[in-house]
Design goal:
Helices cover 33% and strands 15% of the residues. By secondary structure, it is an alpha/beta fold. The chain has an 8-stranded mixed sheet, with helices on both faces. It has a two-stranded antiparallel ribbon with strand order 2-3. A two-stranded parallel sheet has the order 6-7. The radius of gyration is 21 Å and the shape is globular. It starts with 10 loop residues before the first strand and ends with a helix.
Length: 381
């Protein structure tokens, strides 16, 4: 039986000075919450950065004191696991704009002593990565052996390889995309509108009163539908009724799927901030690795800057970021002569499959990291 890393502790890093953002605004006195697992070796060349998805946090593995639930990727991080903490020094930080210890709209504005609300600057995936870069510098890591992320975490990993190509030896990209489709943007917009339509939202200034729990719960319900698949829903729920033998003929939750979505929404509002949901989904919608115009009018691929070796994995039932989007990304990488491995994994659970137990994915990641460890040593020589 594979072991857990055991006790884990969230630490906090104060960003030095001001962080210049993509919108030309600055974040002052920012904080990054992070956790580390394993040991950084003497050469400081065994570090792996884990980038989490929308509602994740820095607690990726192990157990906090007094807690019975492990970190969100416990199945992948630990001694003898795909991301082996006996071999690698693993870092996971909470993203900018979140509400899990890193500066976001629910944080106190040093200028006012009150929560930022919508006075928090609008951020991008690149801004998240710029903040992570300062943390990695603080930890005295000159180069990352790998950056790993799924979904929005995959976007961050992509941004790392392009913004700081000299610092990233490899990247593992799971269930992610170069840019949101109109469908993905549409779902995010409907979810944001659900929050902003809640009378308790108060234009984002709700921290001294009642929170927009109903709007956030509906937003989570909308998002959760996109994380599953038709097959997963048929398997889990079908048209089965919830604790009854016939319809109620009112607007209670008659079906199991209704009850499940309401439960997910209720559980989410207990741990997440509505404004953070707005900020992070908007950052994901803005993310776009489309080719940029050169001075001569031709197009330049952002991957022309990349030097990383890539492992890209998609899942057959993921309709939010379908395999065709991963294939388009792989094609763009190969056009720039990059080392790319690609695998489409058979999975019926939809977009969230990368968070679930998968021997295929575990073996892929473990084998890829083994190869990267060997090649990075040869590269250093």
């Amino acid at each position: 039986m594979k072991k857990t890393i055991g006790p884990a502790e969230t630490k906090y890093f104060q960003l030095p000075g001001s962080l210049l953002l993509d919108n030309n605004d600055s974040l002052h006195e920012g904080t990054i919450a992070y956790e580390t697992y394993g040991q950084l070796n003497k050469a400081a060349d065994n570090a792996i950065l884990i980038c989490h998805a929308l509602s994740g946090d820095a607690h990726a593995a192990g157990f906090h004191a007094g807690a019975s639930k492990p970190g969100w990727w416990e199945i992948m991080i630990g001694p003898g696991k795909a991301i082996d903490t006996n071999r690698y020094f693993v870092v996971c930080s909470n993203i900018l704009g979140s509400c899990m210890g890193t500066s976001g709209p629910s944080s106190l504005n040093p200028a006012t002593g009150l929560a930022y609300g919508l006075k928090f600057p609008v951020i991008t995936i690149a801004d998240m990565v710029k903040a992570q870069k300062q943390l990695i510098d603080f930890l005295a890591i000159p180069r990352l052996l790998a950056v790993i992320g799924g979904s929005i975490g995959g976007m961050q990993s992509l941004e790392w390889t392009i913004r700081y190509p000299e610092m990233v030896f490899s990247a593992i990209l799971l269930a992610t995309t170069q840019r949101h489709s109109a469908l993905a943007i549409a779902f995010n917009e409907v979810a944001r509108q659900a929050i902003m339509a809640d009378p308790n939202w108060q234009a984002g200034d709700y921290y001294q009163g009642t929170k927009p729990d109903m709007g956030l719960a509906v937003a989570r319900m909308i998002g959760h539908i996109t994380y599953l698949s038709d097959e997963a829903m048929r398997h889990k729920f079908g048209r089965r009724l919830q604790d009854k033998e016939d319809f109620s003929f009112n607007f209670d939750a008659d079906f199991q799927v209704e009850s499940y979505l309401r439960y997910q929404g209720k559980k989410f509002v207990e741990r997440f901030d509505a404004n953070s949901f707005l900020y992070i989904t908007k950052a994901a919608d803005y993310f776009d690795l489309a080719p940029r115009p050169r001075a001569d009018g031709s197009l330049k691929s952002p991957f022309s800057r990349a030097r990383a070796r890539y492992l890209v994995a998609s899942f057959t039932s993921d309709w939010l970021y379908p395999t065709r989007e991963s294939r388009a990304m792989v094609k763009a990488m190969k056009k720039n002569s990059l080392d790319v491995s690609f695998c489409e994994i058979e999975a019926k659970w939809g977009h969230d499959a990368f968070l679930l137990e998968s021997e295929r994915l575990s073996n892929l990641m473990s084998g890829f990291l083994d190869r990267m460890g060997r090649e990075s040593q040869d590269y250093a020589l």
